[in-house]
Design goal:
alpha+beta; three-stranded mixed beta sheet; 2 domains; single chain; five-stranded mixed beta sheet
């Protein structure tokens, strides 16, 4: 990451208004860390109200290595080159005007106290932000029925033909590849290999923590999965699918409903593009872990692996749709903790 920031700072022609290049995106966790170091402590109350937004955006440019523009354009998103919008929040109510939440965009939420001093920063994906909308005002939300099969199952022994074109015919060394990178030809594990590599997870535990720590539980599980697949290190940028490099979406199930968020396995929407290659929701490999909670631990009982094309054969889909034009999203009280 230090090399990426240095490269940005040494390139004076770089602009925050460049077209987004996903290969050059700063991972969300790193972006959050950089922004916290630069922004926390800034006293926005020293500036006129109309100037405060510019102060925040200027500090963000400095933090991530981009030149500060003379004027900031009203683009969507505000920082196209790194695919994120910025909202400075004194309250726990995010207001998004004149557009829907973009699921694949990132949102930088800058928290200030009553004295307008920046206290912390959170970076969240559009998909996760949309989940916080309890009124169902934004888009489709998909769910499926969780079935317990009593044994590990690979429901789709072969990938879709589209994925199979990029599947490796030999052993792949993933130790030098980040799981958030886009895959290239020959870098995809066959779905059957994904299943076999993850089977040793069954019977292992992760900490339950508490009912409000879904994000941390997910990170612990994703780290284990990355290790089992053969990656040298873990990384998660909060995007869909969870492990971009293998087109893997992970679902940890301790309840009877599978929450698919904004993505239907059957909608055939574009999930990932790399050059002329396009992967859709039917190509995504779903890793579903049937689990139970006991004595502060989550025990992984069974592993189910299926691709989007065959998902509903194993887990019936149902969907609800409620729409509203007003986008006001209340954040949880512990959101910035």
């Amino acid at each position: 990451m230090a090399d990426k920031i240095a490269e940005l700072r040494n390139n004076e022609e770089r602009s925050i208004y460049d077209k987004v290049d996903e290969n050059c995106l700063i991972p969300s966790c790193e972006l959050e860390s950089l922004l916290k170091r630069r922004l926390v402590g800034i006293e926005l109350g020293r500036y006129p109200i109309r100037t405060r937004s510019k102060v925040v955006k200027s500090a963000i440019c400095e933090a991530i290595g981009y030149p500060v523009p003379t004027t900031f354009r009203k683009t969507q998103p505000r920082f196209p080159a790194q695919n994120f919008d910025v909202y400075t929040q004194k309250s726990l109510n995010v207001q998004i005007w004149n557009e829907d939440i973009e699921l694949r965009r990132r949102y930088v939420l800058v928290r200030t106290d009553d004295n307008s001093i920046v206290t912390t920063v959170r970076v969240i994906s559009g998909e996760d932000l949309a989940k916080l909308d309890k009124t169902g005002t934004l888009t489709h939300k998909y769910q499926a029925t969780m079935k317990h099969y009593g044994e590990d199952r690979l429901f789709a022994p072969f990938d879709t033909p589209n994925v199979n074109e990029w599947v490796s015919s030999s052993t792949i060394d993933l130790t030098t590849i980040m799981p958030i990178q886009k895959p290239s030809v020959g870098q995809l594990l066959p779905i059957a290999d994904v299943y076999q590599r993850l089977r040793p997870l069954i019977g292992t535990n992760i900490d339950y923590i508490d009912a409000h720590q879904e994000r941390n539980r997910g990170s612990a599980l994703h780290a284990k999965i990355c290790s089992m697949l053969g990656y040298g290190e873990y990384a998660d940028d909060g995007q869909y699918p969870d492990i971009v490099h293998q087109l893997i979406e992970v679902k940890l199930q301790t309840s009877p409903t599978i929450d698919l968020g904004m993505h239907s396995p059957l909608d055939e929407e574009t999930v990932l593009e790399n050059g002329d290659k396009t992967f859709t929701s039917k190509d995504v490999r779903y890793v579903i872990l049937d689990a139970k909670v006991d004595s502060g631990k989550i025990t992984l009982d069974h592993l189910y692996v299926v691709n989007g094309e065959h998902f509903t054969e194993a887990f019936p889909l149902f969907q609800g749709k409620v729409q509203n034009k007003k986008l006001q999203i209340p954040l949880p009280k512990n959101f910035f903790d």
